[in-house]
Amino acid sequence: xxxxxxxxxxxxxxxxxxxxxxxxxxxxxxxxxxxxxxxxxxxxxxxxxxxxxxxxxxxxxxxxxxxxxxxxxxxxxxxxxxxxxxxxxxxxxxxxxxxxxxxxx
Amino acid sequence: xxxxxxxxxxxxxxxxxxxxxxxxxxxxxxxxxxxxxxxxxxxxxxxxxxxxxxxxxxxxxxxxxxxxxxxxxxxxxxxxxxxxxxxxxxxxxxxxxxxxxxxxxxxxxxxxxxxxxxxxxxxxxxxxxxxxxxxxxxxxxxxxxxxxxxxxxxxxxxxxxxxxxx
Lengths: 105, 166
What we know:
The complex is a heterodimer. Chain A is mostly helical. Chain A has one domain (9-93): Orthogonal Bundle (Helix Hairpins), CATH 1.10.287.3510. Chain A is built from 3 helices and no strands. Chain B has helices at residues 2-23, 27-47, 51-75, 88-109, 128-137, 140-160. Chain B starts with a helix and ends in a 6-residue tail after the last helix. The model of chain B has no long low-confidence stretch (mean pLDDT 85). At the A-B interface, helix 1, helix 2 and helix 3 of A face helix 1, helix 2, helix 3, helix 4 and helix 5 of B.
């Protein structure tokens, strides 16, 4: 069961572009900081899948190693981001990003 | 071909649940739809014969990151609607901008093709043996640096989550 014979790489490009754009739209239209973090995860995942696809198509393992490192950084980012969201909720009792204009001064 | 249908099914599932992440009113439904997206992308990795990445993806994303999101949603009792959704013109502008970005990307990538150097069925690069060899031979230093990054992230998360004021 291997997709490489029949599916051109442009299908992966299309699919990952659409997933990335859904993530961008999510960052733009949502006010909940948690959902914004989820949209960022969506974008990271589309990039990961594209890197893995190019790595498999060009027969180079370096791309999959890069995907591995991106996953490491994404896990660290989510841990810190959620800790910051919990802290924001403790101080302002909301994770609405429009409430977070206290950092201006 | 059979794998074509699997590709279309997984892509449709991932796109549908990604859209539903944004359309869900409650954050916990968004988290569950995001988990479905991650499983679909894990299926894509298996389809690409990247077995190590598929396992790591399922463990890290569906196992660790989703549990973190669910704990945050449940512990903070955030499971309610957005209090003040953005005005409709902001949403319309955002959706138009995102769709435009997608159209530009698709127009750029349309017709691009990569010529295979080797018959893909013989490719072993996604297996644990080959990836481990490359990881510990060529990418030793980034691997160690990423462990330091993890340690820093752990210390930072504990520090931020402490009860008393800093």
